[in-house]
Structures are given as structure tokens and as C-alpha cells.
Fold these 4 entries.
Entry 1:
Amino acid sequence: MNEEKQESRLVPEMIPKALFRRSVYRTVKRSVWDNEIRARVIEEANQTCAYCGARYEKGMFCHEEWKYMDKTHVARLVGFKLVCRDCSNAIHYGKSSTLGIQGKVEEHLAKVNDISMDEVKKLVREAVDVWIIRSGIQDWRIEIDEALIEDYPVLADVEIV
């Protein structure tokens, strides 16, 4: 890895088991997601992937950004990013590995982050280690960041269960 690099931009963010299928996307009405959240994210990102810069007319994903406070067992939604399919697959590495596409995903991680395959393997191992620890936690509390609610008032009454 280059000495000046602090950390990789695109990293696997495997969701703890207790939080599988718990998201704004799965909680709000589809029309709210499509028209009040996703459409705005697409427009603000100018249809450009936040990580690799890819631009597609269709097939871009509105990714929910989560911050995990392991000591207090809080999962906080802090933002949304527009990502392409390849970057989404990298972020959701666990799901991608069950689909048998981890080789392609690892190549994409290497390309986007300008790192070697050995560094990619290390990045993935670290993400798996964190996932194992977080998946041992059963009592996660889900919060939506106040600043995000200010940006997206439709989130004010959303309770992710």
C-alpha cells in the first residue's frame, strides 16, 4: 500500500447478523424511498458512484451508511451514498461471497483503492473479523442521526425494527 494512504476508500461493510434486513429501505413505503430519498441521492451525486466514479443511467444503488458503536450496541444511520453495482457488491462482501462473485469483487476493491490483492485479502479478513464480533451482539439499538433527519425530514417518524 502506498505510504501516503491512510485507509481504503471502498471497504466491505458486513452487516451484523442481528441487523440483517433492518433498514430504511425495508421500512418506508417504496414511493417514499424512490421519490424522497433515492431520487435526491441520485440527483445530488449527479448519477455518479461515490467510490469509483462510474455513471449509469440505471442500476445505481442508494446505499445506507451506518456507523456502529460496538461498546454501546448502537447502529446509527448517518447518511446515504450513490454506488454502482460493483461497489455495492464490494460493500456487501458477505452477500457477494454467497453468490460466488468474491473474485470479481476483490479485483474491484483492488482497482478502486489502488491496492494489491494481498492488501485486499487483508481488508476482507479485517472486515470479517469485525463482522464476527458484531454478529455476537444481539441487542443492537437502531438510531437515525439527527443531522440526517434534518436533511431528510421524512425520516423523522421512521422506526427501524
Entry 2:
Amino acid sequence: METLISYQQALIYLNEVGRQINRRAETLEIEQALGRTLADDVSASENYPAWNCSAMDGFAADAASLIGSAPQASHAIKGILAAGDPPVHSSSGVWEIMTGAPLPDHCNSVLPIEDCVVDRDSEGKAQSVVFRKALQVGKNIRQAGEDFTTGSRLFLKGQVLDANSILALATLGVAQVRVLAKLRVALISTGKELVSFRSRPEPGQIRNSSGPFLMSLLQTREVEIHSTHSTGDSGAAFRRLIEVLSQDATVDLVLTTGAISMGQFDFVAGTLRDLSARSLFQKVNVRPGKPILLAELKGSDRPLFLLGLPGQPIATAVGIAFFLDPLLGAQRGSAQAEKSIWMPLAEDCKKPAGVVSFVRGGIRTSAADSASVAWIHSNQQPSRIGPLLECQAWIELPEAADFLPAGTAVRVVPF
């Protein structure tokens, strides 16, 4: 009988497996790179801004040249500069300037237009200006390279690109990036009771809701569905399929649902033993999802692993969030932390002692001090799907405790 291991022990195995699976790198246009993991560090190839430019609409001048000017002195305007105009090589004078326009060579200060009195001709062109405040060197100027400097590192290998990352890359003219290819996953569902969710079940049958649910969860991750299969309750069919997938070099991971507990038709673990697969774990001290397994398949010329999840949809979701996601995170390294939040519980909570519990809940604002707190749904039956619609996050409750008072810090993982 397989030994029950702790969730922390399971995470160690998942980290090791994640680092063994060799995901290829591919080059993508940045418009297609959102949510993808960088395969290399990325550095700036140029300064940004590329030149000194104005941060305000106003008037630019050399602040030192105006020292000693009479109060309310009127200064002639040499010209106007707008964003998109080429830099002006000038050694003196005052210029009207718009936000983003390059500063003339000699200018080192910009006074906002609201601090100026401007005399304009009939066409609106500025003829002269009176400064109502003193100009200060460097004021209202964006210095060349103050945002990004040539050679500075923007992103680390393993970082996931978000919309802000795409903004920075586009700003610097980076059109393509090398990212990790998506993990190619072969899906296997088990259970003869399952019929298509598009059909009406006969007595004793249920719709395969886990299939589209699982595929939807995977589509939000760096996963490519390699293939989908169903073996019913046939251990022989499952064995033949595993033998085929083990020889397929285009599969990175096999993900199964169902048939991993201890019933008569729970054939996955036994079939893997018959195939001499190396079992890493088969039972983890968590709820829901205790009968979850991880094994290395034999017969392949590269590391190929199988992650077996319970078939019940809520336990399947736990398997994705708390087992597959750490495996994917290990492939990214330590450049970016997982998206979990620590926050206090809104109310007292009782739980079974000696097991890590993953419960459904969400985040709300405390009426007492307007701080964010974690709330737990009152119905945690793993067979109930309805409560899932009212929740926004998983909440991890630690193994040792059987009672957590309000205010206890817990880990919250948004769906």
C-alpha cells in the first residue's frame, strides 16, 4: 500500500518533476506573448526616453540665463515644439513646448503654461511670455534614459509576461521574444458512467462535466491540449493507451481523471505498476483530493510523467490549482512568485485536524476596518457545484490546526 505523504512532500516531488520536463523554446511576436514564460533574460537595447523631453505643456529655457531678469520681464519666443518634432539645435532663447517634445540643446527647465502669461498673435502663435515663477534646473523634464537605460535588465528568464510587460517591450521596440513552448498534455478520462455533456444520460449515467471544466482550466494556463481520450472502466484500454503515449515524443505530460482510489474499478495505479512506472506518490494528506498520484512512465526516451487526479470536479480543480500549478511554476524557476495572497480570516473556522484543507471562499472588505479578509463558504461538500459559482478563490487551511480564530492569516489562491 502506498504511503500517505504530506502536501509539503508532494510539492518537493512536483518541483523536481517540473524541472525535469524539458519544454522547448519558441519565438513569438509580443502581441501573442501575453501570459507566456520567458525563456531568456530580456535587456533594454536603447535608452528611453531616447532624448531629454518635456514632461509638461509650457515654455522651455536655460534657467541660469534668466537669473537676474527683472520681475515680470517679457521674453520673446523663438518657436514652438510639439511631440514628434525633430530635436532643435539651439544655443539660446525661450521655446514654447508640448509634452513629449524634445528639448532644445541649451534648455534645462520647463515652466508649465499655467504659470505663464502668454502674449499671442491673432493666429494663436506665442510672441512673448512672462514667467510668474522662477525656472528650476531639471524641473518638468524627462531625462534621456531615466526610464530605461541601454543594457539594463527588464525581465528575468522565467518571468510571465503581463500587459505591463508588453507595454515596456513595445516601448523599446522589442517585437519578438523567446518563450517556453506550452506544456503539451494528453488528457485521459475514465469511468463508463460518463456520457457527453451534450446528451441526456440514461439511468446510472452522468454527464462528463469534468472534461470541459478541466479543458477550460487548462486553457487559462500555459498548456496545449495534445489529445483527449476516454477509456471507460477498462484497465486494458488504459494500458494500451499509456503504451502508445509513452512512445509519442510530442507528449510532455499525461493527465488523467478518475480511477485512482481503491475501488474495484480504480485501475490506474495497478496498471502503472504493471507497466513498471516509478511511483512518486499516490496518496497526499489533503482534502479534497487525497487519492492523487504522480508517476514516471517507462518506455520513453525522455522523462514522461503522469499526474492522476480524482474524477470528482471539485477535487479535479484542487489538483490543477495545488498540484499542476506548482509543477508549472517549477519550470519558471524563482523569477516570479505564484499569485497567492495572505490575508486574515473573516470569521472563526473549524476544520479536521491533521490534514491540509482546500476550501472554497473569496475576499471581501471587513466592516470593522475596511481591510480585505478571506471568507469561507458555508457549504464545502465536494459533490456540490453550486457553491463554486458563489466563490472567487481557494483558501488553504494548514494541516495541524483544527480551529482557526478570526484574524488568522491564511493563503488565498484566486480562481
Entry 3:
Amino acid sequence: MSILTESPVAVIPAGTWSIDPSWSALEFDVRKLGLVTVKGRVPGFSGVITGGETPSVVGTVDATSITTFEADRDAHLQSPDFFDAQRYPELRFVSTSVETSDDEIVVHGDLTIKDVTRPVELRTTRGSSSSTRRRASALLTADCVTWRRSAARVALPSTRTV
């Protein structure tokens, strides 16, 4: 599949870019029991975006760096109940395809958490760019229950307080 807009400009121009953590943020929010939204940040991440005819995105997250800014909750997230960061120190995303529509780029890929890989979509809105930087915002929606049902090892309990 060619990743081109109606004009002859590639959606992701040819080249390879490292995601610069000093200019980037990886943040998340989780609905808890449908009542409260818990926000967090992941300072330990890296990624590479390759553009051109067959664009790709690869990213990793250091599971030990995931924080909600509350020590007890963070310790629980690091435990075997959730990410089991000692045994599985890395979460990984690898794109499988990229498509575009209007002002959105959709990156389809596989997200691996605790050796369980599930397909996900990164919905990315295009932002401003310069000769050395491109700005974009991406949204990934993942259902923890999906990982729990796919393998007993993931064991993301819905009854635990996080």
C-alpha cells in the first residue's frame, strides 16, 4: 500500500527519526471503576519512525518508569498483578501498517505487554513541522481486560484498587 496523500507528498516523508524524549511526552489516563480518572506519565520510552513508501513505527516503554505519582499505586503497577516489571521490563509497539484519512494518520500495530501481543491502533493527528522536527499527537486506546482474557499470566484484576 502506498502511503501518499492526493498530492505527491508522502504522509511520513522518507527518512528515519528517533523520538526525542526532551521534546516528547508519553502520558496516559485510566478510568477506575468508571468514577475516577487516574493520570500518569512514562518518562522511560524510545521510538523510531521510518517514513517513505513503507512507513513504520517502533516504540518501547521501560515498564519500571511508569508512574502515577503515587508510590503505593506505582509499586502495585510494577508488581506481577499488572506489568510484572521485574520479569517483563519492556512494553513494545511495532507497526504493521499505516493509513491516512483527512487530517489523521492511523498506525496499526502490535502492542506487547508481558509477552502477550494484541493488535492496537495509534490515531495520530498531524501537527506543525520544520526541517528538523515534526509535531504530532497520538492516541492509543487499550482495554486491560483484553490482555487479561488473552493469557492468564497477564492477570490484570478488575477487583484490585489501583
Entry 4:
Amino acid sequence: MTQGNDFEDDQHVIVNQQGVLAGGAFDEVEKVREKPTRLGYEFQCTCNGCARPAKILIPWDELITASAGAIPLDQAQNRPWSMQNTKEGAFMFPAAFCPCGVQYPIAFTPDKAARMVDKGINMRALDPQQVHQQVLFVKQQMQGYQRR
């Protein structure tokens, strides 16, 4: 038996006051970078299963529909989005799966979609009047289909 600390080989090293999980590789895990573009919102992330990088573009029309509280239809795949968390109402984009089968960490609520749409309006990628008309149209279509 040794004198002193029997677990000295397990001591955690503090790097820049961020703990043992500091560093470039850890920063890429679960990190999703997002930015508005002229065509929609672009998400860049890395698959947690195979570490494959992904760039996913969600078109403005689908974000406007989500911001109105309706489940959008993925225009490219012709299938509806799904609800990731029905308690909080988070939507999951259908193309948010890596070819290895693991889901990319891309999901958001109608409130977040509305904030994204606002950024699109602020950067002049969207016409505020057209957004308003589309939201009204979606809400009219939803009458009778509201969750109770």
C-alpha cells in the first residue's frame, strides 16, 4: 500500500478553469451552429453516432408554418415533421437523421421558430406582410384541428 493519495492517477486536471471537459473535441459534441440565410435557416452539427458533419437547411415556409403552431410538411421529402417532445411542443425536422440512423440534435418549439422568422424579416430575407398572411392562412387551416 502506498502512502498519500491512492487515487493520484485519477486526479482531474483543470484546463482554463473549464474542468476536464474543456477542449476543441468536446466543443463539437452536441453543438449546433445555426444562421439565417436567404433560403431559410441553416444548421451545422455533428452526428453523435458516427461524428459525420451535417449541414441542414430548413426553408422559410416550413419555419413560418411551425411558428404558427402547426406541424409543417417537409417539402423535399413530402412528409410531415414530427413532435419530439409533446409536453413542450418541440418539432423535429424529418431530415434531422444521419445516414447511420442517429438523430441530429435539431428540434425547436413554435416560439423558437417565430424568433427565427423574425431574424429572417430583420435581414430582409422575408417580407413581413407575406409572413403575416401565411401565418393567418395556417391558423385558419388549423381551426378544428386544435389540441384540447
